[in-house]
Design goal:
Elements (H helix, E strand, L loop, with lengths): L25 E3 L5 E4 L2 E4 L10 E3 L21 E7 L5 E7 L1
Antiparallel strand pairs: 1-4, 2-3, 5-6
């Protein structure tokens, strides 16, 4: 039986302020358009079905996560913050407009 590679944990405290620009702690998903300004990271929706996404470059095995997020205006737009494991178990906060 082949062993799974170990996932390295974050192992430190980080603070990310997207009003200061992009962060090396996250990777922007292909096809995502994000701008950074005084409101932080703004995920630009240009078409139906678009899912603009950034992904953490680290695993969080335990600890505390705080998110300050302004949800999108508009009908049918879902604003969310999701933490997901390799097994696709997830914890998510969602606001549906």
């Amino acid at each position: 039986m082949a062993a799974c590679p170990a996932d390295s944990a974050l192992g430190k405290t980080i603070t990310v302020d997207f009003t200061q620009g992009k962060s090396s702690e996250f990777t922007v998903a292909d096809g995502s358009t994000i701008s950074y300004g005084t409101n932080g990271a703004e995920f630009i929706i240009t078409s139906d079905g678009a899912a603009r996404t950034i992904t953490s470059n680290n695993y969080i095995f335990f600890g505390k996560v705080e998110v300050f997020m302004r949800t999108a205006n508009g009908t049918g737009i879902v604003s969310s913050f999701v933490m997901e494991s390799d097994d696709l178990d997830e914890i998510d906060w969602v606001r549906i407009a």
